[in-house]
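Check out a protein:
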Amino acid sequence: MRAWWPLVAICLGTFMLLLDVTIVTVALPAMAADLGTTLADLQWVVDVYALALAALLLGVGSLADRIGRRKVYLAGLVVFTAASVACAVAPDAGVLIGARAVQGLGAAGMFGTTIALLGTHYEGRRRGVAFAVWGATNSVAAAAGPMVGGLLTQYLDWRWIFFVNLPVCLVAVVLTLRSVREVKGAGRQRADVLGVVTFTVASGALTFGLIRAHSDGWTAPLTLGLFATAAVALALFVVVETRHENPVLDLSLFRRPSFTGIMVSALFLQGAAFASLLFASLWMQSVLGYEPVEAGLYILPMCAASFLVSALAGRFGPWSPRVTIGGGLALIALGSALQATLDAGSTGGGIVAGLVVSGLGVGLVTPSLAAAALGTVPPERGGMVGGAVNTFRQLGFALGIAVFGLIFQLRIERVLRADGGVPDPHGTAAALSGGQARSIVAGWPEGERAELAHLVREAFASGLNAVLVVAAALGAVGSLLVVATVRVPAGGAEAERRRPEAGASPHGQGTRADAAL
C-alpha cells in the first residue's frame, strides 16, 4: 500500500483543482444574486481560473523540470489553498475574479507536474494502473463539480464551494511531504521567461476579446485591439520558441502528426465535453426553476459514466490511443448531439442520456491522453509535455466558454427578434444569458407573463441546442483527426521502447521512441 501513497497525494490535488473548474457552474445564479454580476462577470468567474491555469501550465512544467517537480507541486497546493480562502470571503465580483486568477496560478503548479510525477514514480503495469486512477480522478472531478457545487450552494452557501478546498488540500500537502520524492530534469538550462509571457498574453487577449465581443461588438476598438494583441503575442511566441535553447513548448514536436493529433484532441476534449455545462446549468436554474442540487443531479450520471469507463480502461487495457482517444471523442460528439434536441417543453431529463454518452467518452479519452503524451519526450522533459497536454485541455475549456457564450447569446437574440414581442432583443438576450430569466418574466405585465415565459424557454432551448451542435462538431472533428494522425501503439511510447529495435543506441544517445510519433 505504501507504494500507492504518491498516487493518492497527486490525485487529491488533481481532484480539487479540476473540481474547481466546473464546481462554480451551478453556483453562478447564487453568486449573481449575492454579488450583482453581469454576463461578463459570470463568464470570468469560470473563465479566468481555466485561463490562468492554461496560460501558466507550460511555464510551470518547464520550471518544475529545472527546480524540482515536488517543490512546484507543493507550492501550487499552498497557493491554491490560500486563494480558495480569498475566493470564499470575496466581498464583490472583482475580488472574486482576482482570487480565482491566483487560484488558477496555484492549480497550474499542481497540474503542470502531476503527469511527470506519476511517470517517475511508477513503471510498467503500475504506471498503467496509476494513469487509469488519475484519469478516473480527472473525469470524476470535472463531471462531479456541478453536483458538489449544488449541494454546498443549496444547503450551506456558495462560498463553501471554496472553503471545502482547505481540509482536502492540507491532507494533500501532508501526504506529498511524506510520500512523494523530489525529481528534477535538466536543472542548468536557461528559463524561457519570454515564452511564458507571450503565450500568457496571447491566450488571455484572445479569450478576453471573445468575451468583449458579446457586449462591444466584433468591430469595436477594444475587441479589435485585443485580437491584434493576441495575434502579435502568438507570433512572438513562435519566434521565441524556435530560438530558445530550452523552450517551454518544443514546436518541432508538431512536425509529428501523432503529437499534433494528441494536442488538438486535448484542446477539443474540454471544450466539447464540459464548456456547455455552464449554459445547461443556467437553463435548468434560471428558466426551469431547479434548485442547485436538482440541477447537479441531472449532471451526475455523466460523472458515474466517466468514472466507470476510466476504471475499466485501466483494468482491461492498454488499448491503442486511436481507439480510446478517437473513440472517446466520437462518443462525446454523439452525446452532445443527443442533447441538442431541446424545445420549449423540455426538462432537465432531456439531456441526461446525452450526458451519459459524453461521460463514457470522457472516461475513455482522459487516461489515454496523459499516457500517450508522456511518451513523446525523454523522461527529463516530462514536465514540459505534461504541462503542454494539460495546457491544451484547459485552454480548450476557457475558449469554449467564451465561444459558446457568444453563440448562446446570439441565438437567444435571434429567437427574440423573430418573435417581435420584445422591445430590446439585444439587451434582453444579454440579461437572459446572465441568468436573469425569472426577474425579466416577473417584471412583465401580468397578462403577458405566460406568453413571455414560453418565449424565454424557447429561446434558451434554441441557444443551448446551438451550443451543443458546435460541441458535437468539435468532438467529431477531433475524433477524425486522431484516427487520421495518431500512430502510437497500445501502451504508448513505453511499449515502443520495449521493442528490441527501439532500444538505446550503441552510444547511449537515447531511444527511437519518438519515431513512433
Observations:
- The chain has a mean pLDDT of 79.
- Residues 192-245 form one domain.
- Residues 382-419 form the longest helix (38 residues).
